[in-house]
Amino acid sequence: MKPLIVANWKMNPSSLAEARKLFNEIRKTNAVICPPFVYISAFKYIQLGAQDCCWKEEGAYTGAISPQMLKGLGVKYVIIGHSERRIHFKETDGMINKKLKAALNSVLIPILCIGEKKDENPETVISRQLKEDLDGIAEKDLKKIIVAYEPVWAIGTGDFCEKDEAKKARNFIRKKIGNKVLYGGSVNSKIAKDYIDVGYDGLLVGGASLNAEEFIKIVKNAQT
Ligand code: 13P
Q1: Which residue ranges make up each domain of the chain?
Q2: Most buried residue, 12, 65, 178, 205, by CB count within 10 Å?
Q3: Is 185 a pocket residue for ligand 1 (Cβ < 6 Å)?
């Protein structure tokens, strides 16, 4: 099975024209591409993802986007619980748990992000987040969730997680939940393969997914 590579564009690029250009350059990789909500309807693509969703299907939730709406636009995957949502938008594990259930209800494949901050113990944080985020999700649905281990200190810093440490976290997650596990945090084309070699099923790429040439290299290196 080829590693699953996911591009999380975050709040980039700043115009639809640039988004179209980037999309057309990287779509041939077959990677999952998660553009900002406002660009999604401009793209027809089998591997489309979103960066978040609401826990409700519709209603008075100003500014929110529902899993149903995403499904209707051809979206297949949705990132849930990214640390930037947890930190900047004060998302709690309780909210993340509801979002996961709503996404599964709408037949989207959730990519659940977990990971520790600088001075936290990885295993303590991973255990707590998995327990609270997955609370009450039925076994048959649980299997559909992809977990992304993204140590917060490694995101956008260039300070990527060494492969031995990453391997430890991956094995710990796998013991708790047998699902696919991706690695994310300062991934570039030089280190992409290291994570696959230590057992990760794929990568969640932020900054480097905005550079078509570098992203194509990441996919190629990870998948060979
Ligand atoms: P960077 O690759 O920019 O470190 O971001 C990782 C990430 O947050 C992907 O979701």
Answers
A1: 4-222
A2: 205
A3: yes
For residue 176 the two structure tokens come to 């708790």
Angle ∠(119,120,121) on CA atoms, nearest 5: 130
Q: What is the pLDDT of residues 37-72, one digit of tens each?
A: 999 999 999 999 999 999 999 999 999 999 999 999
Residues whose CB is less than 8 angstroms from the CB of residue 185 and which lie 6 or more positions away in sequence, other chains included: 115, 150, 151, 153, 154, 155, 157, 160, 161
Atom number of ligand 1 nearest to Cα 148: 10
Whole-number Å distance between alpha carbons of 145 and 207: 24
Query: In this structure, which residue's CA is closest to atom 5 in ligand 1?
Result: 206
Whether residue 25 contacts residue 43, with contact meaning beta carbons closer than 8 Å, is answered with no
Structure-block tokens of residue 81 = 């619980």
